[in-house]
## 1
Amino acid sequence: MRLAICPLLKKTYLLLTFATFASLLSAQPGLWLTRQSQVDSVPILYPNLEAVGSLIIGYIPTQPGEESDIDDLSPLTGIKKIYGDLYIRKNPRLKSLYGLHLVDTVFTGIHSEILENDSLPNLAGLDNLRFVGGFFNIKDNPLLQTTEGLGELRGMVKATIADNPLLQNLDLPNLERVYDYLNLLHNAVQTAHLPKFRRTDGLSINGELLTDLSGFAALDTIGRFSSTATCVGQPSIGQPCWLGGHAVWA
């Protein structure tokens, strides 16, 4: 027997959930760190810190030309939840995200970005991250070669991975769902490994070096779709392959 949920009760529940989240967000310190000395001061100023509001490491897009001197995030060890946005941008000396390895959830309502970090080869250090809300953008990281480090990621709302010229390996072994869309644009992706990725409302793969879509074979629900890659076993140009439980044209 299915139970009908009163619309007013549902609306009240959503309002209470939002109010609870808002109170959690306002109760956490927000950190904007542009210097290594500031990073080093976090465990002194906030001992036993496990949750933050927004966490900005480096500079946001409204500050063109600015770059941080941050090269070590280990003093941030202990943070497990981010209730606002996560920005990691314009950190030319940063080679590892270790220090964020206990973060399991980013509840962002707007953006999370890993953007324009000139020395970052992979995403190791985000090893415990399971869910990212809002927009999740990984863009313009010139030395990024793999998504290694996102091995525990289960779900995202919206994500764009774009303009990382050395990114050859898209490895998201535990990703199950992207609620809105996943865009892969103008990287150098040659291999994709998403064996549990089953559902998304939109998938776009354009400007990549993928020769087939076998890495997305687990998809059984898909909305919008576009790709410049071919489907596994596609007999000829113009013939459909099966992706997301129905015929699509790559």
## 2
Amino acid sequence: MKSTWPPPSSIVVLNEVIDTFPARKVKTTIHLQDSGLYIEPEGYSDHGTADEFDSSIVILEVHEGRLRVLIWSDINEEEPTHTIDLEGARRSARKDYEPLIVCHICSSPIDASTAHRHQEGWVGECCWDERLRSSE
């Protein structure tokens, strides 16, 4: 994707999501560039931008091969107040967990993949000892 200036943008109006709060709408411009997604809510800015201009206070970018979000939540701070690495949100990072079950002896939650069947229930590594092993 080739960089252009000004970047392609969309304007959306964000509405209050909680019904019990007074209705509030924030006009927001979203700029799309090959270097990232830039979000500029009207009336918000960063430390280095003059007050008559809005600026991107949220940026989604790839930095050193990792997807991240930069947020400026305080206009008095020059650097981003939050940098959030999103690599843990990749679909390929999803772990397949075995359902938890309860140890028949101590009632602690145990991982089904390591539980031992014993009499009418399951026993976890927490209570699985030589005596129980010999009864298998």
## 3
Amino acid sequence: MEYFKILDDMFKEFSEYKDIEKGKGIRGKLVTIISPSSSKLAAVIEAIHLASLLHDDVIDEADKRRGVISINAKYGDHTAVMLGDIVYSKAFYELIDFGSEIAKVVSNAVYLLSQGELEDVKLSKSINLDKDKYMQMIYKKTASLIEAACAAAALIEGYDKKDFMKYGKNIGIAFQIIDDLLDITQDEKTLGKPAMHDFYEGKVTLPFIYLFEAINNEEKEKSQEADVNEFDSLSESSLAQALGESVPEEQKEPEEETQENAQNNDNKTKQSNSNIDITKEITSAVTNGVVSAVSSLPDEHNVKKILNSMEVTIKFNFKD
């Protein structure tokens, strides 16, 4: 993709940059779908995203990114932070060429992105079960830049940016919810980074909020009383059950079959049947959000291209 070549040319003088593994460039891809001639803008958006990842890995103390050693793990936190600053600075320098309106849209997204990162850190210090706070945080942290990318590309083409911002926001929120789900359901090789990373950092993502709603009262009391660093006190069996997975026999404690136990087992079966199917719930929300966003776009706004790319977009790159 041309915008990756432009991006590489921006930072070819920095040897550390060459050790960064590229993603599939969902933000740049969306820019070029809406405005095919805007490869440079796509490169600028991807540069901003890259800078945020360099800083994010330092905050998370991550040792891998997209399956390879992260910059902070290889060169140290100071180098990673400074390289992130260099990438941010160059991106904003190039952004000026696109005029004040586009510059304001994109720079405001970076402001929101930074707020989202701070909110993410704050929320991880306690067990947050408020879906609205979670949605606000992922909008700022992830969706805001995708929203801005779509808006900026629309402005270049002379389109009304409002519809494209809605589309970008929904794609971004969908992307982050799926990423949070994959953190639980996939292994390190698939993710390109450690699995269950959010869980061990005490981050209560949407799957865990649904988990809390699905578990029994005893487990709820235990989690509410626990320090955030003891969030893993929730049993693996409860996690597996809420995710709709079977609990290994060796994890089950034998029970004497009494009338009371039989009644309890019957109640558990009813509760299990009424538990939220997290995957279905999230997938439905994602689908509805994206379809709603796309259906709001008039035909002249490359709807067919966007629809054709939607499946690719959703599957695109969950290693970010």
